[in-house]
Design a protein that fits this description.
Layout lengths: L2 H15 L7 H12 L2 E6 L1 H5 L4 E5 L3 E6 L5 H16 L21 H8 L7 H24 L6 H5 L1
Length: 161
């Protein structure tokens, strides 16, 4: 597996999305909604943590649905969401095969939809590595925005009192 090539794919997707210099999680969400032509709904699901799944993305006909595990860390929650945003930006819904035996996992959703999400649970596949690399680029952009908004003291007394 060529890690440089995979990171390059993530960087290309980041550039193609044209993420602004200063971006928030909400602005990134809106950018993806515009790009994909549908709303993104994000919901916390306590039961996910019990299954060692931190996040799932369902590409529904009119909505992108992100389900994430309960977490006490806002940054962990954000990283889970950014990872799912990355799958959207990379159009990873096209990569998954249909499987019929998954209907019992989430009975209100089609087996093929569940299969598409769970196929991504293998963390060391190329699509997962590219998605995590893109999520890291999104996180860096959010961190730069936060740092740019901070007012930091510029003198000794301001820092040490």
């Amino acid at each position: 597996m060529d890690m440089e090539l995979l990171r390059g794919q993530a960087a290309a997707a980041f550039r193609d999305l044209d993420v602004p210099e200063r971006v928030t999680l909400e602005a990134l969400r809106e950018l993806l909604e515009d790009d994909r032509g549908k709303n993104i709904v994000i919901r916390e699901v306590k039961e996910l943590a019990r299954n060692q799944i931190s996040g799932l993305w369902f590409s529904l006909p009119d909505t992108d649905l992100i389900l994430h595990a309960e977490t006490s860390s806002p940054l962990h929650r954000e990283q889970i969401i950014l990872h799912e945003f990355a799958h959207m930006a990379l159009s990873h819904e096209r990569l998954m095969d249909e499987e019929e035996h998954l209907a019992t996992l989430l009975p209100d959703l089609s087996p093929s939809l569940v299969a598409k999400c769970l196929a991504r649970c293998q963390r060391h596949t190329e699509p997962e590595i590219v998605a995590e690399s893109l999520a890291d680029l999104f996180a860096d952009a959010l961190a730069r925005t936060r740092r740019a908004g901070r007012v930091e003291p510029r003198n000794f007394r301001g820092v040490f009192g």
